[in-house]
Inverse folding.
């Protein structure tokens, strides 16, 4: 019996990123298999339909990473389609979106992507996939985030916080204010 744990990851990526990402994720996966005793199996697809062709209609994954090339205008729309095809309970906890052309992409598209991520409370990672060192770094980063979020790293699943999680909640602030007001009246 092997004591290596299995963990599955699906990567949606534009075709122009595919070759670099396959190499980077393979190296990062081997590194985690050696150091953490976790075997990360990764499936790559550029569309949901392609993923279904690869794995059948019951594709299972512990984590999903969606890479977006913001230099192409339709990729943010494609990202929204991916989000609609993923079960709702999966979206805020087991998913990240990667801006794969953060240095060379359009600022307006970057803002749209950040807005989409904030709307769904999805962690966003910025990287330049066409740069080898940046591509390797983001592959390792995604695997670490996936293992932490999925509970494989420490035995307890974690929700990765996003910027909207740190915004003040008016209802919570009102409740805290009312509690403090009551305490002051009692003393």
């Amino acid at each position: 019996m092997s004591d290596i744990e299995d963990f599955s990851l699906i990567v949606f990526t534009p075709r122009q990123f595919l070759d670099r990402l396959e190499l980077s994720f393979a190296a990062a996966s081997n590194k985690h298999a050696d150091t953490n005793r976790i075997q990360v199996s990764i499936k790559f697809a550029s569309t949901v339909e392609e993923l279904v062709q690869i794995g059948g209609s019951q594709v299972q994954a512990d984590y999903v990473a969606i890479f977006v090339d913001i230099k192409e205008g339709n990729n943010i729309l494609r990202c929204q389609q991916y989000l609609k095809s993923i079960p709702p309970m999966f979206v805020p906890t087991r998913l990240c979106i990667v801006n794969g052309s953060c240095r060379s992409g359009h600022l307006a598209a970057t803002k749209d992507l950040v807005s989409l991520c904030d709307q769904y409370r999805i962690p966003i990672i910025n990287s330049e996939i066409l740069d080898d060192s940046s591509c390797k770094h983001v592959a390792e980063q995604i695997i670490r985030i996936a293992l932490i979020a999925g509970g494989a790293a420490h035995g307890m699943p974690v929700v990765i916080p996003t910027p909207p999680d740190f915004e003040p909640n008016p209802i919570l602030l009102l409740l805290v204010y009312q509690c403090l007001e009551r305490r002051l009246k009692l003393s």
